[in-house]
């Protein structure tokens, strides 16, 4: 076992939203200082020892930031490659460049997954409108056209119900490289949150069952109502991905449950909204697990000791927080965002529904 | 139900140690900003949105601090009364002045408890050395001589094994008003952490069983190995104290288990080291509970869904954190203190030993 970063070391976090905020608090719990890098409003800065407010293409600011940190991580995957280049020169960066490159590009991600022998939705690249008929021949309709890069919570996507809607769909891309994905007939959506340490050890949490509304995660429930064989499959899939990427940190894998088994929807190289339940159900939550991984601590074992329902508070659902907080076994997490906007994640609650 | 303080409000915390640090993070989880007031090094400041570094007798700084806060609380009870006067003029202060006055003075505390009909160790006030023979006649020997004010973790105390050691013991007080306490023959030490909300509602956690070493808490274990009738008694005692003080916030009550029932050792008007296990065993931990109470949120119910052993890391025991962190179900909390000193609380671990 190698020694972890010494007490008082600085963990740099790119991005100052709620994930960065919860990572910063987890870093503090392990005796580290957090330094947030965020161009705009940064609720994470309220719980961090330091904050840099600068654009992701500000080379000087990026390098000064990296120089002040012992390790750098991020709360979202859509970080410009140039920013990573500057950071990696001056600080350890986990997860590393490769994990980001795979997850930043839907085509690279799907190709990586199928090369690993994992099942995904049928997909095909779309460079221009002319590619679409051949692509739809692969995926069938209905299908979803998505930009290859910088998608999040359903943004940058268009549904193609029938081939004659294709031209209209392509128009919204503004010439950006895209991918078309076929639909998967699934009974449930689950996700598994897993981590790989600097020493190559792996720990996974029990898969959670996710319900989305309007393309945004609404609830995650553990245990998921699936057979234990599928739970094992989900954890094996996550482990295979972690090892193939020689990954360090926490990874989220979204999966569809189908009659033929599990199909990978997407991977997120970071702590994940569907892992928030671990704050109430596990001794070591996903945020502590990620900080453990990237700073060289042994991973927590991920054992679950409670059943939990995590419910996101989107937009003015934050006003329901008061009612929810009064319910038994309910833990509340609000993100300190100054402005409530429709579709914006304002907080979440974890409701413990019983011992595991 | 009244509305809680709005999102983005500021919770002021007097004291910047580990309790202030964990309170600041709990405030952030409820969408509040924390402002730490601390004359010296303040690990809590690393997770707070603002920090004032000034002495507790700096009137201008205290008033400016209070003016910047929507509510003020504290992480320890030995706050000069003058500081409270200045604070209370400009901000709501919870728990309030009376709770502090009772707990700041061992004589006032014991008198308050016995007036409530609760049992304590036999005690008697000691103004000068001349008072000691009469006092020891009340308490018997062995006894402990303690300064009435500003004691913590066994500091400012002297053991009197036999009456002829009395003079020597009094000398260490330097003329400070004191109290002598008799010994209680007890089988176990337990504590109960309970909260009272702004609306008068009360919630209590399951009592924990405490083991001290060298006068400092070493471990707290839940469940305590006591009959459920005593658990109920402990919670009723805490409730009686909370109501008598019209208290707002979290209170810790240390109790001795004796053949004749529970004897109150002392009360602490704040979150308490023996309540740290709630971070791993309950949906709402004592820190969130305290912030809920003082900001007008409904209290969490305190239900326990896991068995937990909390172990303090004192002085260079912090070096054991690495080994402990590798154990199953073990959550680690390090306080970010720059210097390791013997007897100093550097962190703690919560080990989940199973579902409740």
From TrEMBL, chains A, B:
It catalyses: 5-amino-1-(5-phospho-beta-D-ribosyl)imidazole + hydrogencarbonate + ATP = 5-carboxyamino-1-(5-phospho-D-ribosyl)imidazole + ADP + phosphate + 2 H(+). One of its GO terms (biological process) is 'de novo' IMP biosynthetic process. Residues 110-295 form the ATP-grasp domain. InterPro entries: ATP-grasp (IPR011761), ATP-grasp_carboxylate-amine (IPR003135), ATP_grasp_subdomain_1 (IPR013815), PreATP-grasp_dom_sf (IPR016185), PurK (IPR005875), PurK_C (IPR040686), PurT/PurK_preATP-grasp (IPR054350), Rudment_hybrid_motif (IPR011054). Pathway: Purine metabolism; IMP biosynthesis via de novo pathway; 5-amino-1-(5-phospho-D-ribosyl)imidazole-4-carboxylate from 5-amino-1-(5-phospho-D-ribosyl)imidazole (N5-CAIR route): step 1/2. Its EC number is 6.3.4.18. Pfam families: ATP-grasp (PF02222), PurK_C (PF17769), RS_preATP-grasp-like (PF22660). It is an enzyme of class 6 (ligase). The keyword Thylakoid does not apply. GO terms for cellular component: cytosol. The keyword Nucleotide-binding applies. Keywords: ATP-binding, Ligase, Nucleotide-binding, Purine biosynthesis. GO terms for molecular function: 5-(carboxyamino)imidazole ribonucleotide synthase activity; ATP binding; metal ion binding; phosphoribosylaminoimidazole carboxylase activity. ATP binds at residues 106, 146, 151-157, 181-184, 189, 212, 265-266. PANTHER family: PHOSPHORIBOSYLAMINOIMIDAZOLE CARBOXYLASE, PURINE BIOSYNTHESIS PROTEIN 6/7, PUR6/7. Belongs to the PurK/PurT family. Homodimer. Catalyzes the ATP-dependent conversion of 5-aminoimidazole ribonucleotide (AIR) and HCO(3)(-) to N5-carboxyaminoimidazole ribonucleotide (N5-CAIR). This is N5-carboxyaminoimidazole ribonucleotide synthase.
């Amino acid at each position: 076992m190698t020694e972890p970063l010494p007490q008082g070391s600085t963990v740099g976090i790119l991005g100052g939203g709620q994930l960065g905020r919860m990572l910063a608090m987890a870093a503090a719990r392990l005796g580290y200082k957090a330094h947030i890098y965020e161009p705009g409003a940064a609720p994470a800065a309220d719980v961090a020892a330091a904050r840099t407010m600068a654009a992701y293409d500000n080379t000087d600011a990026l390098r000064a930031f990296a120089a002040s940190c012992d390790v750098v991580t991020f709360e979202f995957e859509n970080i410009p490659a140039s920013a990573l280049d500057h950071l990696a020169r001056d600080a350890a960066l986990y997860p590393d460049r490769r994990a980001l490159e795979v997850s930043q590009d839907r085509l690279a991600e799907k190709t990586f997954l199928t090369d690993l022998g994992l099942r995904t939705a049928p997909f095909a690249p779309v460079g221009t409108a002319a590619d679409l008929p051949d692509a739809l021949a692969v995926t069938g309709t209905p299908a979803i056209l998505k930009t290859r890069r910088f998608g999040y919570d359903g943004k940058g996507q268009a549904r193609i119900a029938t081939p004659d809607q294709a031209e209209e769909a392509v128009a919204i891309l503004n010439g950006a490289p895209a991918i078309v994905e076929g639909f998967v007939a699934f009974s449930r959506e689950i996700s598994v949150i897993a981590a790989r340490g600097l020493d190559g050890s792996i720990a996974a949490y029990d898969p959670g069952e996710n319900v989305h509304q309007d393309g945004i995660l609404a609830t995650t429930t553990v245990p998921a109502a699936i057979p234990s064989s599928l739970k094992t499959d989900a954890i094996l899939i996550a482990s295979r991905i972690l090892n193939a990427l020689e990954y360090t940190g926490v990874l989220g894998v979204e999966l569809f449950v189908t009659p033929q088994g599990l199909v990978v929807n997407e991977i997120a190289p970071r702590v994940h909204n569907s892992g928030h339940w671990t704050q109430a159900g596990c001794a070591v939550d996903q945020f502590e697990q990620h900080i453990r991984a990237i700073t060289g601590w042994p991973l927590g074992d991920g054992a679950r000791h409670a059943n939990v329902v995590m419910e996101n508070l989107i937009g003015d659902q934050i006003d329901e927080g008061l009612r929810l907080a009064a319910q038994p076994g309910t833990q509340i997490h609000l993100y300190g965002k100054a402005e409530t906007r429709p579709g914006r994640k304002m907080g979440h609650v974890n409701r413990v529904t019983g011992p595991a």
